Amino acid sequence: MENRVRSESRSTMEGVKFGSEAAVAAAGNTNRRALRDIKNIIGAPHQHLAVSKKPSAADAKNQGAGFAGHRPVTRKFAATLATQPANAPLAPIGSERQKRNAETAFHAPSDMECTKVSDDLSVQHLSDMDEMMTNELKEIDMEDSEEEVAPDIDSCDAGNSLAVVEYVDEIYSFYRRSEDLSCVSPSYMSHQTDINEKMRGILIDWLIEVHYKLELLGETLFLTVNIIDRYLARENVVRKKLQLVGVTAMLLACKYEEVSVPVVEDLILICDRAYTRADILEMERTIVDRLEFDMSVPTPYCFMRRFLKAAKSDKKLELLAFFIIELSLVDYGMLKFQPSMLAAAAIYTAQCTINGFKSWNKCCELHTKYSEEQLMDCSRMMVELHQGAAHGKLTGVHRKYSTFKYGCAAKSEPAVFLL
């Protein structure tokens, strides 16, 4: 091994004048590998007409001093190269030792014979890079055009830990993926033998009044209606127990959403003692069993808060939007729309009602992921509900939103121009 290293070092010193003391010390060190074994640019035999994975020293000289290898075409690097002239040399990115080795190897006699081959390889390499950069820039342009970024609406809540700005987008992406699980068939009432959609509407309208009297949270009302619909879609219920299903669903929603839950005796009084404590507790066990204890579902209320923020709403718009969507809770025909569409259409209808013309900006469209055309059918049905809110038997929502506490939102003129 020692003779081999010394012979290699001797041939290297004879072929090229090399004055580095570090190289001489390395030649005398028996623990070092031969220079050609580690493919050092000095001392290694040159293979004519051979193409290696890394560019040769001659390629580096022709393409620009210090070009030590293929640099990944990143977005920033591609944009920089695109602004440079076609014949501009590449910026040096190699180390000083690589530059010195490249210059030394370029003047070696063995490389003089393959200058023409190196030139051809250099031209071919540059043309390949030009094509690669062109394709990369095209891909960047396509990505930017296809994915339009929604405006930031959470920067104002950066200091609010309850707003969870860091992952609020992921939360609502999950809501959009899972909202189908909270929906029911819009024709489930056809499987009921003793109740119909009008009875359901009477029950929901009465529960909205109960919710208002007990001063419960908005989330509780929407979850109550969702529990009722999901249970009725799975279980056949007789009409004398429909009210029991309603108050028990509200009790379950209160346990899930509220801090202070109404006691069972209060619900018995609300039902005019039509049911006993044992009836309510038994119905509670039945409902959670049929729903498999699944109470974590995205309701329209979840999307309302997010979409109102995207619409930069004031109190007037917020109250009018909630008035419209609570009218939708009562109507059985609105079950064919997803919760996110109900929320977006309610806000769109409220904006049109206040402004007197169609109003749906790009920020609302990007955050709700619904265009104005997609919301039109749902919005027209909401306008019809608004027109008839003060008439008929189901006027609980209209009375609630005719009070000063709710800004007399029910007295707004409906946006009949949308019809």
Automatic annotation (TrEMBL):
Keywords carried by this UniProt record: Cell cycle, Cell division, Cyclin
GO MF, any single term: cyclin-dependent protein serine/threonine kinase regulator activity
Name listed for the protein in its UniProt record: Cyclin N-terminal domain-containing protein
GO BP of this protein: cell division; mitotic cell cycle phase transition; response to gamma radiation
Every Cyclin-like domain range: 205-289, 302-384
KW Plastid (keyword) present: no
Pfam families reported in the protein's UniProt record: Cyclin_C, Cyclin_N
